[in-house]
Amino acid sequence: MTAAFSEEEVHRPNVIQLVGVTKSYRNLNVLKPVDLDIKDGEFLTILGPSGSGKTTILRMIGGFTPPTSGRILLRGADISQVPIFRRPFNTVFQDYALFPHMTVAKNVAYGLRIRRRPAAEIKTKVSAVLDTVNLTDKAERYPSELSGGQRQRVALARAIVCEPQVILLDEPLAALDAELRRSMQEFLKDLQRRIRTTFVFITHDQEEAISMSDRIAVMDHGNLVQVGTPQEIYYKPRSEFVAKFFGENNLLPAQLDTDGVTGIVQSPLGRHPIPALASSSADLLLAIRPESFAIHDGNELRGDQRVSQARLENVTFLGATTQLSLAMGGPEHKIKVRVPTDQSGKHLNLGDDVLLRWSEADVSFLPRG
Questions:
Q1: If pLDDT is split at 50, 70 and 90, which confidence band does 93 have?
Q2: For the chain, what are the domain ranges?
Q3: Residue 143 — φ and ψ, nearest 5°?
Q4: Does residue 91 surpass a pLDDT of 50?
Q5: Would you call 135 helix, strand, or coil by DSSP?
Q6: How far apart are CA 237 and CA 249, in angstroms?
Q7: Quick one: angle between helices 119-132 and 178-195, nearest 10?
Q8: Would strands 89-92 and 166-170 be described as parallel, antiparallel, or unpaired?
């Protein structure tokens, strides 16, 4: 998982800002008002299921689609009506869009040629960028003679050779097989760090977003529902949708009661102190990740650690980890617990009561629905 922003990165200037941006087609609103800041030099992933509006945002940033309302700012200047060819961005598409009749070198040089750059400059830059993406020995080959991963790197080389301020990537790894996709994820993130260019990456794959991103913007039905680091979104979702969509989460019913100063939440895990909320009887959901539980070993608890009892219903071996399916506080409250296999309590039998250790810090409370 990518590390959280350093102090310096937190204060990076914004390279792109979306201010109240919407998109409608006739009577269909595909994008609700979106406010989003993209930091200079960051790897931002826009994540969401099909139809969530993520590609619409990318196309509006790139100039392929005009916004219905709102503004798109580049370092503070409004570029909402600036045509594609005047925006200092390049886009890498899912199908790569390489010219089949051109060699690798000529594909990469294309953007420089149409900008009428000197031949010596083109040769130097193409050579340098092919070295950056490890394709120097493929310069005279044609796209049909390359593997999927090599074609992907040609598309990336063509995007970066003109030194754009932002590179937009529209699900560029979707067509690759699983092993090659993982390899390209590592390559792409390493490339972004080396060239220090802002990447805006579109995907519907949560693991891809976690492994590559500095920050993630989560979309749902045209709404931007949460923006944060992978750690923030994974461990502290702000809505039921994010909790369900972004990895596996245990969701348990919870009820808020207030005494005027401090809120007390009742859930199958027990009582939880939280700051007072507006409603005195709010229906909530408690979210906690399967790996946030551990089998209680009887040792003294530390800090905010708590213990809860649950009944074991199933055990699933997953290799390095084992998943326990349990019922807690009654048969209707099901939870999943994922623990290292060597700590999974092989002596346990189905139907046994299990003591689970967990921390209050790992709990999030969400509005229901």
A1: confident
A2: 7-244, 250-367
A3: -50, -35
A4: yes
A5: coil
A6: 10
A7: 130
A8: parallel
CATH code assigned to 7-244: 3.40.50.300
Length of the chain: 369
Domain spanning 250-367, CATH class: mainly beta
Alpha-carbon radius of gyration of the chain:
25
Select from 68, 30, 86 the least CA-distant residue to 223: 30
User: Helix, strand, or coil here: 176?
Assistant: coil
**Cβ atoms within 10 Å, residue 66:** 12
For the chain, the distance separating the N- and C-terminal CA atoms, rounded to the nearest angstrom, is 29
Name the nearest CA neighbour of 57 among 214, 193, 220, 212: 220
334-369, pLDDT tens digit by residue? 999 999 988 776 778 899 999 999 999 999 998 887
For 79, other C-beta atoms within 10 Å of its C-beta total 18
Q: How far apart are CA 256 and CA 141, in angstroms?
A: 65
- Token readout for 308 is 């809860």
Work out the pLDDT band at 3, boundaries 50, 70, 90: very low
d(CA 289, CA 249): 5
**Which pLDDT value is given to residue 347?**
78
Rounded CA gap, 310 and 327, in Å?
A: 5
Nearest CA to 168 out of 194, 144, 192 is that of 192
Would you say 23 and 67 are in contact if contact means Cβ atoms under 8 Å apart?
A: yes
C-alpha 311/C-alpha 330 separation (Å) is: 9
CA distance linking residue 186 with residue 181, whole number of Å: 9
Q: Which of 133-136's residues contact partners 24+ apart within 8 Å by CB, and which partners?
A: 133/157, 133/191, 135/104
Rounded-to-integer distance, Cα 235 and Cα 291, Å: 11
**What does residue 112 show for φ and ψ, rounded to 5 degrees?**
-70, -35
Asked if 235 contacts 324 with a C-beta cutoff of 8 angstroms, the reply is no
Tell me how far CA of residue 49 lies from CA of 100, 142, 274, in angstroms: 32, 34, 32
Whether the CB-CB separation of 254 and 265 falls below 8 Å is answered with: yes
Q: What is the DSSP letter of 123?
A: H
3-state secondary structure at position 229: coil
Compute the distance between CA of residue 82 and CA of residue 66 in angstroms, rounded to an integer. Answer: 9
Number of H helices, E strands in the chain: 9, 20
